[in-house]
Amino acid sequence: MPLFWCAGCGNGVILGALLRVFAKLDLDPRRMVAVTGIGCFGKADDYIKTNAVHATHGRALAVATGVKLANPDLTVVALMGDGDCATIGGNHLIHAARRNVGVLAVVANNLNYGMTGGQFSATTPEGGISSTSPYGNPEAAFDLCALAEAAGAPFVARTTVYHVAQVQNLLEAALRRPVFSLVEVLSSCPVHFGRHNNRPRPKDMMDLWRDVALPVARFREMDPPQRAGKYPIGVLVDRERPDFCARYAEVRERARAGGAGTRPAPAER
Amino acid sequence: MLGNEALFEGAVAAGARFYAGYPITPSSEIAELAARRLPALGGTYVQMEDEMGSLAAVIGASLAGVMAFTATSGPGFSLMQEHIGLAAMAEVPCVIIDVQRSGPSTGLATRPAQADVMQARWGTHGDHAAVALAPASVEDCFFVAARAFELAELLRAPVIVLADEVIGHLRERATLPAAGELQPARRRWPACPPDEYRPYAPDPDGVPPLAAFGSDYIFRANSSMHDERGYPSSSPEVAARVIRRLCDKVAGAEPAIARWRAFGPDGRAIAGPPAGLDALLVSYGAAARAARAAAHEARTAGVSAAVLQLELIWPFPVEVVEQWGLQARRVLVPEMNLGQLVLEVERVIGKRRPVTGVHRSDGEALTPDDILPHLLGVRA
After folding, report:
1. Among A186, A154, A159, A180, which residue's Cα sits nearest to residue A170?
2. Which residue of B has its CA nearest to A48?
3. Which of B76, B238, B336, B352 is the most exposed place for a label (fewest CB within 10 A)?
4. Residue B304, CA atoms < 13 Å, CB-side half-sphere
5. Which residue would you say has higher pLDDT here, B33 or B266?
6. Domain span at A228
7. Cis peptide before B368 (omega within 30 of 0)
8. Taking residues A118-125, what's their average pLDDT?
9. What is the pTM of this model?
10. C-alpha angle A247-A251-A254 in degrees, rounded to nearest 5
């Protein structure tokens, strides 16, 4: 398939890193499923040779949940943009993280809805110019990683397409865990977001990521006023939580032992 | 047993082992049974955050090789229209049970209606086919649910079970097959080697064989218009061919998959239309029960009426309705809505026989007394 993305689009960096991780981990494509949403990054499945589902807008994580629960041996990745995952798909992101289904959610966050012509999304910075915020975005943006953390995601990481090696390292670290992981990669959309916000060239967008992304340790040392406009990158959350399939295996054990079904023990209620 | 219980048992007997849903009156018993019974069978119950997520997860599970279903009612059925479209375009077998209730919108959560019939046909956008079955008794629920999975795998399509609150919450005796007696539904797998498999290359009947994720077959499912390999295509020739095939594969199967029961003027089951009928009642679901009682009572007044109780509602069984309708002087269509299936009956036979709808849309079950005056008036 001819590559759909614009010259200067950051999505290729993310997809390339993901494919290199697949190769490095020597994963069997027959046991892999890529579920994608709608939007520019949602077209990533056209360039992957594993099983794939090009799903509906915002629902990739819900489809991925069904795939993974039906066959926990599959490696399931969900490839979404910020519109797909954080805006229309926000509720499914929250519950996939809460449920802790073993899916890797890769979000290419280019701060707008690229494919439909550059409207603002839930991650467009306040004041940002877009085709539907010509006088400046009146809405605040989500911190996607904080959202996933609050919802219970055990592994949350962020980087940018400027930090190419880190993209690959974080994706690999996430894939090695059986839990729900979110890897947010801040990406470049010079044709829309960049053009509207004084960064029309691909290099301008790369400079932005170089300048606003800070290693998380340094970010946490800064006073809150200094953090404005900056994004902490690296592994932000890495904790232990049994994944949904492990917990559901316990449910099956109890169901088989308990016959018609028993009330859960008081501590679990 | 309860109608909702029979729906669940039929699904399990057909081989369903994955349920994703969101509770909603009057279907919640199905979710509760799934949560209770599926784990011990090695299956999965997952309670999704909403009905869009529910049918999305059902579709994911089906693609991963596990027969999957969900259950809902009006407001949830509206939310599921998005993914009925996904299942139609990506050709994913799945079953959606709609235990219809009075609407529109939140409406009367605990009261019956049959007003989602046209929504089952056209609720999702675009040109698409629809497959919908209506059970009229608790025993029906078991066999209709099982049949829904058979049709879903046969046609590689979403299948809707249009139950209603009367049937879903009815308790009556049902005779079920012994364990293992019912043939589980079976997927039509590709016969070619994995590297030759094209997930949207149809068999002669218009249905492409379907493998499952995790097998030796690697394939893609696509909500966008796509070619036979599942890659996006915007060619008018491809779009025309695919859209037409999605519709034709169901329409073409209708004669073979149509299911109905008929009851003569004496109330006994009959296989063919008797000659000289005063009236034919075409009905489905809870309304069919009232129709049968009304027909029986009308006989004492000298009016001979037969009841054609449709199980397959969509695709609409054109030949069956035509064949039976032409044997009667008048056709009546009792339904718990303001007139939905009657539009199809009128389309098929309205130019040759008078067609009258008998409607009720107030959250109450249609009764024989609602229908009887129309039957008695046939002879007038």
Report:
1. A159
2. B220
3. B352
4. 13
5. B33
6. 11-262
7. no
8. 96
9. 0.97
10. 135
Distance separating alpha carbons of residues A94 and B63, to the nearest angstrom: 24
Q: Do B218 and A251 touch (CB under 8 A)?
A: no
pLDDT tens for B186-199 read 999 999 999 999 99
Number of domain units in chain A = 1
The residue count for chain B: 380
Do residues A93 and A85 lie in contact, with contact meaning Cβ atoms separated by under 8 Å?
Answer: yes
CATH number of this structure's domain B260-379, picked from the four choices 3.40.30.10, 3.20.20.70, 3.40.720.10, 3.40.50.920:
3.40.50.920
- The alpha carbon of residue B58 is apart from the nearest alpha carbon of chain A, in Å, by 6
Of B44, B218, B230, Cβ closest to residue A29? B218
Q: Which residues pair with B158 in a beta bridge?
A: B94
Contacts of A73 in chain B (CB under 8 A): 214
Rounded distance, CA B356 to CA B377, Å? 11
Q: How far is CA A242 from each of CA A28, A245, A263, A266, rounded to the nearest angstrom?
A: 25, 8, 21, 20
| The amino acid at B46 | V
CATH topology (fold) of B1-257? Rossmann fold (3.40.50)
Helix, strand and coil content of chain A, in percent to the nearest 5, comes to 45, 20, 40
Whether residue B182 contacts residue B146, with contact meaning beta carbons closer than 8 Å, is answered with: yes
A94 touches chain B (CB under 8 A): yes
Handedness of CA A140, A143, A146, A147 (dihedral sign): positive
- pLDDT at position A260, please? 52
Structure tokens at A204: 């301008």
